[in-house]
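Students often ask why we bother encoding 3D structure as a string. The short answer is that it lets us treat folding as translation between two languages. Here is a chain of 96 residues written in the first language.
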Amino acid sequence: MLNPLYELAEDCADDDDAKVGISELRKAGLEELKMHNSLVQEWGLDLAKENNINSATVKYTQFLLATASGKIEGLKGAGKLATPFEKTKIAAYTLG
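And here it is in the second language, the structure alphabet:
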């Protein structure tokens, strides 16, 4: 889920510096996930068997996806943005 959200935020950013910053955040997040995965393997855990997903986590994930796709109050879908400001708001909300 991380990569598509950051890619959308990067696409919606309003300047090159913001795009570079978001790209760097995405890369750092992917490195963090790699570290977590290596620890899970090192400890011999099978998260599919040992982990029940908390309903709050599911709702939060759904919220992030809705936010990144522009399906939040007052915004149109990402492909139907009317103004550059609306597009920038999606980048800001996604990163927030």
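Translate back mentally: DSSP finds five helices and no strands in the chain. Keep this in mind for the problem set.
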